[in-house]
């Protein structure tokens, strides 16, 4: 197969290409309301019930005819006529139009008295005051919040139609083994697709991790063919560079079209953007930091353009404790450890080119160094994008003492 490496394209240009080349898929799925938080409504959702169905008490007390309480007040309590005891939420009997709160009545000689007059409708929730049958609860394209769940259920909605985008993730590499198995010399446990699926799932995508594909172009071709048929977006982990076992770009080109091979981002430059059967394929570098950077900076913006938004990263202003040098021809994403120093925050750039997974664990933030920037000097106040909750910036990463000696052992039979 002939491999042709395209010149690296600017990140902004690639994002715009993704948005313009791939219209939003129209998939929907019906889910139980109780499990639909974070999903986006596919169509308007209207109430099946009138809530409340009848007039109900808004306070504990006595339902009365409001006309039977005039002239009260001024320290001259009057007896309630035909009072009906109600609790908050009870239906108001026919012929009653107000509630006297229990705090405003006193008992005397077996009768109830009040010196606070009530007006018609006082302390009553009228029928339909919450919502009426057929009225709109949520519009289309609304991201369902936890607080919406209760309203939907209260209005008789048990199932809801939400938009769905299916993302397939194919891990490649003969050196990979599934989680739970012990890799041999030169091997590795497959983890890139798991981390990527977790990131994409936060945006509401339905992710499917496909089986590991060994470095065989015939097997990879079949996996891509199946994956693009079953999904709206396909991510292929590893095989995007120019090594002797990197077949991804050539196979995408045979099946469809390679739009971009090489993006001016660090890490993640070897990423691929392709199109097969009108659907997008993103080829990810195999290096874990580069893979997650490509997912965050390419796949997530595409999902956002389709209406699937992850929770925005929290931002924090911190002072760099060392100078960052960068290639002005690239958008660079530098991992940081942000920690509190007195009443300020300090950002320490992690050494680039070091460990992979543990660098991601130790970092609690990252810095986008835009193209055209050659350096950011020590002492500069930057805006760090946090990879976790704000409070974690107050907690420097320090392994517990037992971490230096404890190991989670795989079953012996898997390591032999």
Could you walk me through the main structural features you see in this protein, from its secondary elements to its overall organization?
Keywords: Molybdenum cofactor biosynthesis. This is Molybdenum cofactor biosynthesis protein. It contains eight helices and 28 strands. It is an alpha+beta fold and 416 residues long. A six-stranded mixed β-sheet has the order 16-13-17-21-20-18, sandwiched between helices. It has a five-stranded mixed beta barrel with strand order 22-25-24-26-28. A three-stranded antiparallel β-sheet has the order 6-4-7, with no helix packed on it. Helix 1 packs across helix 6 and helix 4 packs across helix 5. The longest helix has 18 residues. It is elongated and about 90 Å long. The two termini are 37 Å apart.
Give the number of domains.
4
Q: Terminal Cα separation, in Å?
A: 37 Å
Radius of gyration: 31 Å
Parts with pLDDT < 50 across at least 5 consecutive residues = 1-6, 397-416
Q: State the total count of DSSP E strands.
A: 28
Secondary-structure content class: alpha+beta
Walk across the major sheet and give the strand order.
16-13-17-21-20-18
- CATH topology name of the largest domain, in short, is Molybdenum Cofactor Biosythetic Enzyme, Chain A
Helix content: 10-25%
- Global mean pLDDT: 88
CATH architecture of the largest domain: 3-Layer(aba) Sandwich
Q: Output the CATH homologous superfamily of the largest domain.
A: MoaB/Mog-like domain
CATH class of the largest domain: Alpha Beta
Give the percentage of residues in beta strands: 25-35%
Our count of helices gives 8
């Amino acid at each position: 197969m002939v491999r042709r490496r395209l010149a690296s394209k600017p990140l902004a240009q690639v994002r715009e290409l993704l948005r313009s080349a791939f219209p939003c898929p129209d998939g929907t799925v019906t889910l139980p309301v109780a499990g639909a938080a974070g999903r986006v409504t596919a169509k308007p959702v209207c109430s099946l019930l009138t809530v409340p169905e009848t007039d109900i008490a808004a306070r504990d007390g006595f339902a009365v005819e409001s006309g039977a309480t005039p002239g009260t007040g001024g320290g001259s309590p009057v007896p309630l006529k035909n009072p009906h005891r109600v609790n908050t939420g009870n239906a108001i009997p026919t012929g009653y139009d107000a509630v006297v709160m229990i705090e405003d009545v006193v008992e005397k000689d077996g009768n109830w008295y009040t010196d606070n007059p009530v007006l018609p409708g006082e302390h009553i929730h009228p029928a339909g005051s919450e919502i009426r049958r057929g009225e709109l609860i949520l519009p289309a394209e609304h991201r369902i919040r936890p607080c919406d769940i209760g309203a939907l259920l209260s209005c008789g909605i048990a199932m809801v139609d939400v938009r769905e985008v299916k993302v397939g993730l194919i891990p490649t590499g003969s050196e990979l083994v599934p989680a739970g198995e012990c890799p041999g010399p030169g091997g590795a446990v497959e983890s890139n697709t798991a981390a990527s699926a977790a990131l994409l799932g936060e945006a509401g995508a339905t992710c499917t991790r496909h089986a590991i594909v060994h470095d065989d172009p015939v097997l990879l071709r079949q996996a891509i063919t199946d994956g693009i048929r079953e999904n709206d977006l396909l991510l292929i982990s590893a095989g995007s560079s120019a090594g002797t076992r990197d077949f991804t770009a050539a196979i995408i080109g045979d099946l469809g079209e390679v739009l971009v091979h090489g993006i001016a981002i660090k890490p993640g430059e070897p990423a691929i953007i392709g199109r097969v059967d009108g659907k997008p394929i993103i080829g990810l570098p195999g290096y874990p930091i580069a893979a997650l950077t490509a997912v965050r900076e390419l796949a997530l913006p595409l999902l956002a353009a389709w209406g699937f938004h992850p929770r925005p990263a929290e931002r924090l202003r911190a002072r760099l404790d060392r100078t960052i040098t960068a290639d002005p021809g690239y958008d660079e994403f530098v991992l940081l450890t942000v920690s509190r120093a007195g009443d300020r925050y300090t950002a320490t750039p992690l050494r680039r080119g070091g460990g992979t997974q543990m660098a991601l664990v130790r970092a609690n933030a990252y810095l986008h160094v835009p193209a055209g920037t050659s350096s950011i000097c020590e002492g500069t106040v930057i805006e760090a994008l946090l990879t976790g909750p704000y409070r974690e910036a107050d907690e420097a990463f320090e392994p517990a003492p037992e971490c230096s000696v404890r190991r989670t052992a795989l079953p012996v039979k898997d390591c032999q």
